[in-house]
Amino acid sequence: MSQPVITPADLTNGEIPSGFEVVHLKTSASDRLSKVILPRNPQQGHVVIFTATTMQGIAAVTVSGGEGLDAIEYKIVPPAQNSFTFDDGVWVISGANVSVLSPRVVGNRIPDNPQSLTSYQLQNGNFVAKIFLPDQASNGDLIFITSNAGSVATVAPGALLFNNTIKIRKGDLYVFAYLDAFGKWGLWHSPTRTPKPTSELAQPIAPRTRFTIRPANWLSQVRLPQQAGDRDRIIITSTAQRSTRILPANIINPAAMTVSSGEEYEFLYVKEKNGWFMERSPDTRYEVKDLLSGNVPALVKPRTIISLSKGKWHGNITLPKSQAKGSRVIVENTALRETQVRFRGLSHPVEEGEIVAFKVNKNGVWQKETTTIDLLLLYSDEAAAFLGEVQ
Q: What is the pLDDT of residue 69?
């Protein structure tokens, strides 16, 4: 097993290189390391050992890793030695300043004001069916719950920010972070279940569920479940040659939805709305030259984006009739002259440098959704700060 020892001088912008089963990072008193980024492409079971000595002017070292929902960040106060193990898609810390608890030590209730990092471990013979998280903690405190028990455990919902579907099974890792602004624990990481999809997708048994439609179990359509835990997620993806339609039932913001090979949709269950919010979806993209006589084909994705540019221009774009409610067509015009978007017998100009969105409203009728937005404004950081981030 390759176990190189590296120093801060070996890092680029604090990033530990990928590719090693075990790598040991050591600092010295003369170093000025305040940030460490764990390997970006780890494999299950890879380990980073971090030995942080006292460094002048450095009160703590931020260690971060992972992406998206599995991104995680630790504050290490030197001197300390910690290990970070990549397990089930997330970096798990052990070592200095990590409190290790179990039902045999504290029962079913993790005490208030825990250490910043707490590991609560379930085993056969050292098990409780319901775990109570602390009512009081500091902002950013993390609790790791792992299980090697044959029975299933849950977490009492009272201290949770959202009442996700939490069923802790053998081999699972759950991570909770305390959010001082809410006085609650937020779910940071959970396992992803991967049941076989059917036309009526099963109600989740975990906060994250991934359904993959394969050639051998291809389905012409699927429907999301009517009920789920609050903020549970469902991901629908496909490796099949034929497309699968996602029905609009139980979806808060439906549109034209088909999933094809290599594509993903992500839905979030919002309890107060009693439905699924479509958070992420693929787009259909056309250059206007791809449209026969400027006619947009029937929509199969929530957003269809049509681009016009110098030398790739058409005077008219006609939107299709009788499309799924909530579907959008976005016209981006960087050509040197305007184009006309036609629908319902009306015509709307899209000038050079503008983006205009059109949406099928709740009555099934096309309408112009946005005022025109200058391309430079839309793509600038200032615009993102002013308009807010839109999912």
A: 64
2.60.40.10, 1.10.10.10, 3.30.70.20, 2.60.120.1230: which CATH number matches 194-280? 2.60.120.1230
Confidence (pLDDT) at 345: 83
For the domain made up of 98-189, give the CATH fold.
Jelly Rolls (2.60.120)
CATH number for the domain formed by residue range(s) 283-387:
2.60.120.1230
Query: What topology is assigned to 5-95 in CATH?
Result: Jelly Rolls (2.60.120)
Question: How many Å apart are CA 353 and CA 88, to the nearest integer?
Answer: 46
Prediction pTM value:
0.83
Burial of 314 (0-12, 13-18, 19+ CB in 10 A): middle
Across the chain, which has 391 residues, the per-10-residue mean pLDDT values are 82 92 93 93 93 89 82 86 88 88 96 93 96 95 94 97 96 94 94 96 96 97 97 98 97 97 97 96 94 95 94 90 96 90 89 92 90 46 41 30
332: tokens are: 């981006």
Fold matches, 5-95 and 283-387: yes
Give residue limits of the domains in the chain: 5-95, 98-189, 194-280, 283-387
